[in-house]
Structure formats: C-alpha cells, structure tokens
Design brief:
The chain has 481 residues and is an alpha+beta fold. The chain is built from 16 helices and 21 strands. Substrate binds at residues 130, 223, 456.
Length: 481
C-alpha cells in the first residue's frame, strides 16, 4: 500500500533569513492594518482602534484537485441544504431528541414551530453558506467535510484581502512566479451579491438591508466590508445594523406583515449574531427573532435554514441512503457521500449506546461535538471518555461523535498581534471554507452559485482553529499538484 503523504511542501523554501523575515513581516503587518485585514482587540478593546487579524505570512499549500472539487461541489451542497431546510418532517424527527436536552436548539425549534403555525410571512430564504473541509491523509489527502455553516458564515470580507496581502509578501521575497498557483477569490462580491439579489427580489426601492449584530463586535472589518461594498456599488441601498435587543425595542410588523424598524421597512435580514445562547439575554431577544421570522423580510438565514445547520442534522445526513431523500442525481449523491466523514449519533437508543461504547474504547479516533456555532466547544481524543461519563444518557443526545480527520502538515510563519518578532516557524494545518449563495422557496431555487473561499490555518498541535477565538489565523491556498 502506498505511503500516505503526511506533509505538503511549502510554496517557498523556509526558513527565511532573519533580517529578511523581520523586514517583510513589518511590512505585511502594516499592509494588513491599512487594508482592513483587521479585528478589534478582545483584550484591550476600544471602538477606536484595530489590530491586524492573525495571518500566515505566505500562503499554505492545499491539494489543487481537492480545492477544485470543493468549489465544484458547492452548488450541490447549496441545493442539499436548501432541500433539508424545507423538509419539516426531517427536521422535526432529526431534532426530536436533541431539543429535549439542548435548551438553545429547543428555543430555535419553538420559533420554527410558531412560525409554521402562524404561516411564513416570506416564502423565500437567502442562504449564505460555508462548507468547511480538511484534507485527510488516510485517503490520499481527499477532502472531508468538517461542518457546514448556515448562519453568520464569516471571514468572506477579510479573506478577500489575504490573496493580495500574501501576493505582496511573495513579490517582496522575489517569488512573483508563485502567484499563478493562488486562486482568485471574490468572496466579498459573491456574498454581497446574494444580499443585493434578495433586496431586488423584495422589490421595494425604499426598503433597507439590516445586519443583526452582537452587542460588541470584534470582527468588525469583516462585517463592515460587506456593508461598505453594498453602499459603494449600490448607493441607493441603505444598510443598517441592529442588535436583537434593538429589534425588540424598535421593531414591529406593518399591516402586510412587513418588518418596520422605526420608520424603515426591512427587505433583507442578514444575521451576524443570534447563533449562540449569549446573544439572547432574555425573552425579549427571542421575541425579536420570532417577529423577524414572521415578517415579509427575506432572512439569511431563515429559522429553518438555521436548524438545518445543526450538527445533529449533519450527522443524520451522513447516514447511507439519507441523501437520496434530498438529491435525485446518483452521481451527485456519490460525490457528496465521499466528502462526508463518519458521524455517529449519541441518542439514548441502541445505536447511540454502540457509539458510546466505541468512543470509550478508542477515543483517540474521534472528536465530540455539541450543537454550537462559533468554535471552541469540541472535546478531543483522550478527553472524550471523561466528558461522556459525566453526561446522563439523555444529555448525550445534544452531542454527536465524529471521526477525527488527520490533515497533512506544512510549515509557515504565523503572525499575531503582540506576537514575538520575528515570528516563529511552526507546523500548521489548514481548513478550507467554500462559500455558497442560494435563494429560493420550498418549490424553486432561483439563484444558486459558489461564492469564493477562505482558508484558516492553525498550529498543528491545536485542536480548535477559530480565528475569532484566537487559535487560528487567516490564510489563502497555494495550490499544489
């Protein structure tokens, strides 16, 4: 059997000589801040200042044919998630056990049930999705899906700046011939295009696009890039930002179920908050969510799209034969089936009990995931048995077990605000995210396209890779054959 490639060759010979490394890193940091590849500091927060976002000095290698595969699959994944979101029976059955023990998912599901009962004010949904992948060394570096995000799929804005940043660095290092292996990335235009299309479909030139945001936004540039892009290209479209609390305090439905915030009618709602319990301080924020879901505004995501992004749904989709419910083309089913990794239910039944025993026996093969977005919640390897033993049989159904994907390792310089200079050369692994945009209702899809990509790279020894959580860094792919 052929040896699996466990490393990927770097795009340039490393390490760099220290004087050269210091000089180019200083330039790259300033480039990042001046072009908005930046975030607000969590430790020294000020609304008036930015730090550059953590980044890789040079692009990290990623297998070309796997990158192309991920790009090609995105429109099928968009369609799959759209069909899942509109399958009431599937969502209800799949989440039945989870909502008994996961209060947050139960609250989302209650909003869904209430809207179903009173009727959707708007049949159309806007999906801005991100499908995340790791290459898996035990399958010849074939990509495996880590998760699919259906709410607040972030870093489309800043990621668009990683290609020019790293192109600048490679040119400074006299390696301009490398640029041809870095794929173009129009994530910002692609994602904003979805919101603009939804605004046009809503068909009221005076209506606004509303971003639902956190009380304090650290990832401000990523959000503002979308807002400023829309304002620049389409000056007639107004964009407003509101928290869930502000929607509760100032929002109401008009006579035709249109959503009014003060005296502004809302055409499109883009959720950049609302995906974790901390965003809902009281019943008021849940009331605000229900108010928006009942309205004629086009939501990104609608409540059913949000539920379709839960880990439990992802686990259910990975079961053999399940894809046939949502996709009719056998070739597409095969292609999607190949990117899924082993996902196992922990429900309180025979299947779940088998998973439980398997996890105790060989914990190093797995990762344990709860129903949460935003990163930093998973349990890995040898920590799994303890975590599982502390749960009741019922509590387990709020979690799924997933095969641990082993990505190939490469080397790079991770540049962080306040980090040591020169930055250390570290072993890293990269996770590719492909953006997709889909608009449609239960019967028709009227818009479906792939919308750019992002690459997040983390130190090979770190389990979690969230950039906002502080463990990963932004990057872009250097495609290798």
């Amino acid at each position: 059997m052929a040896e699996h490639p466990t490393t990927l060759e770097e795009c340039i010979a490393l390490p760099l000589k220290e004087p050269e490394l210091l000089e180019v890193t200083e330039k790259a940091k300033d480039w990042a801040i001046m072009h908005g590849a930046a975030m607000r500091s969590k430790t020294n927060f000020s609304p008036d200042s930015l730090n550059f976002a953590p980044f890789l000095l040079t692009p990290s290698s990623f297998p070309r044919k796997e990158f192309e595969k991920a790009v090609a699959l995105q429109t099928i994944i968009n369609r799959l998630m759209h069909n899942v979101a509109h399958d009431e029976e599937f969502l209800t059955t799949t989440l039945a056990e989870t909502i008994k023990v996961d209060e947050f998912t139960a609250n989302l599901f209650n909003v869904y049930k209430k809207v179903l009962a009173s009727g959707f004010g708007q049949d159309l949904s806007l999906g801005i999705l991100r499908s995340d992948y790791l290459a898996h060394i035990f399958e010849g570096n074939a990509i495996k899906q880590v998760e699919i995000n259906t709410i607040a799929s972030s870093f489309g804005g800043i990621s668009t700046h990683m290609l020019p940043l790293q192109s600048f660095v490679l040119t400074e290092l006299d390696q301009p011939e490398k640029l041809k292996n870095m794929p173009d990335n129009q994530a910002l235009a692609g994602i904003c295009g979805g919101m603009i299309r939804a605004w046009e479909i809503y068909n009221n030139p005076k209506a606004v696009i509303m971003f639902i945001v956190e009380d304090v936004t650290y990832n401000i540039c990523d959000q503002r890039f979308h807002e400023f892009y829309i304002r620049e290209k389409y000056p007639h479209i107004k964009v407003i930002r509101r928290t869930l609390t502000e929607v509760h305090d100032t929002g109401k439905l008009g006579l035709a179920k249109e959503l009014l915030i003060g005296d502004l009618e809302v055409a499109v709602i883009y959720f950049r908050a609302g995906y974790e319990p901390g965003h809902y301080h009281s019943h008021n924020e849940w009331d605000a969510r229900y108010l928006m879901e009942s309205s004629t505004a086009i939501k990104c995501p609608s409540i059913h799209y949000h539920l379709a992004g839960t880990k439990k749904v992802q686990q259910a989709l990975a079961q053999p034969e399940m894809l046939e419910r949502f996709i009719s083309d056998p070739e597409e089913i095969k292609a999607i089936g190949k990117i899924f990794t082993g996902l196992y239910s922990l429900d309180d039944n025979d299947v779940g009990n088998k998973t439980f025993e398997m996890a105790l026996k060989e914990p190093e093969r797995f990762v344990l995931k709860p129903q949460r977005e935003g990163g930093g919640n998973n349990v890995y390897g040898l920590d799994i048995p303890d975590a599982l033993r502390k749960m009741s049989r019922v509590e387990r159904s709020a979690w799924i077990l997933m095969d641990l994907i082993k990505p190939p390792i490469s080397k790079g310089y991770m540049v962080r605000p306040g980090g040591t200079m020169p930055p250390p050369l570290v072993e890293v692994v990269s996770e590719l995210g492909i953006f997709g945009v889909v608009i449609g209702d239960v019967d028709n899809i009227i818009c479906n396209y792939q919308a750019g990509h992002m690459l997040r790279t983390k130190v090979a020894t770190a389990n979690e890779g969230g950039v906002a959580a502080g463990l990963g860094a932004l990057d872009s792919p250097y495609l290798v054959d």
